[in-house]
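User: Can you help me understand a structure? I only have the sequence.
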Amino acid sequence: MEPTRILAIRHGETDWNVASRIQGQIDIELNAQGRWQAQQVAKALADEDIHAIYASDLSRALVTAQHIASHHGLTVQTVKPLRERHYGFFESQTWDEIQQAHPQDALLWRERDPHWTPRDGGESLVMLHERVSHVLHDIASQHRGQHIALVSHGGVLDILYRMATGQGLQAERSWGLRNTAINRLLWTPQGLQLVGWADERHLDAGAREESST
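Assistant: Let's start by predicting it. Here is the structure, written out as tokens:
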């Protein structure tokens, strides 16, 4: 059975990334640097044979995906389950604000407690893993033998890396999740395999790192 080849790409930079402010599922647009990053990754992938492009419906991911799609004559298919983790009451706050106002929740977050669920509609890591696993299977199973792009968010890409490498949800992260870095995976019904990760050669000014979530 032929695998599905996957390009997994995090959206370009936003002002909230710069400010270390938790976006979660709040719809924050790309800043000027993020739009430039989207243009650069689109150029880097222009010669690749891509059959379909999927993206989170949040504008920072969707616009990044549209830049890529413009080189391939494709329409981006938006998929809500590709959204970032829902951080509940953490959303819109900076890391420092969270640490000062909610130290116990901040500790559970930093320790990656897989069952800790942020109040006000947030998702635990277990819930996020389940969501990402399901949407990946649903999309990739439609494109066996093809090459597709998924444009999403740092938390989603972190789960994909863990799935491909067997890292547990509580394992300390040592891999990059930078804006518009190119990550490559292979999917079969038996699981996910890592091909390449954090290719940033198309970015001559670097990219902003995602914090450990």
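Now, to help you interpret it: Residues 4-199 form a domain with the Rossmann fold fold (CATH 3.40.50.1240). The chain has one domain: 4-199. Let me know which part you'd like to focus on.
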